[in-house]
Design goal:
Length: 158
């Protein structure tokens, strides 16, 4: 068992708890994309790793990243709504950046909805900068799709 602020590696066994956390953290219809099976499949890839905060069955946070060809990308990051505002998102970002740099990545990328102001503020405060935009990236059911900002964090001195 890990404490609330201790990062631990995720495994195939933690995939159900990760999927449950994702469902709590996001309103979007991602059930299929981020099911326990999909998470297990991603974790089986040699280029993917994930870290969790908290203990099962109710994790407080998770981050999943992929590194290849000198770049890394955060595939997903989630903090339980009941645990937000405690620095857990920053702890997850820092863990992902350390992992990515250790795998030779020069930068860490992610996408964030332009209307997700708390996440955007977190990423900017962590040193990410806006690198681009993806129009209509996030489907919102019957509501209009929302653009994503592509953000990057340099992992080596420029």
């Amino acid at each position: 068992m890990t404490g609330t602020h201790d990062l631990a590696p995720a495994t195939a066994d933690t995939a159900p708890a990760m999927a449950a956390l994702y469902a709590r953290a996001f309103d979007a219809p991602w059930e299929t994309q981020w099911s326990a099976g999909a998470i297990r499949d991603l974790l089986a890839l040699p280029t993917v790793a994930a870290m969790i905060l908290g203990s099962e069955p109710a994790l407080s946070g998770m981050v999943m990243a992929q590194a290849a060809a000198g770049e890394a990308e955060i595939l997903t990051i989630a903090v339980d709504p009941a645990c937000r505002g405690r620095g857990l998102g920053r702890r997850l970002l820092d863990g992902a950046a350390i992992w990515a740099a250790a795998r030779g990545a020069d930068r860490l990328l992610l996408e964030v909805a332009v209307d997700n102001m708390p996440a955007r503020a977190l990423y900017l405060s962590a040193g990410f900068r806006i690198a681009g935009r993806r129009r209509g990236y996030y489907a919102r059911g019957k509501a209009p799709a929302v653009d994503a900002e592509v953000m990057e964090l340099p992992l080596v001195p420029a």
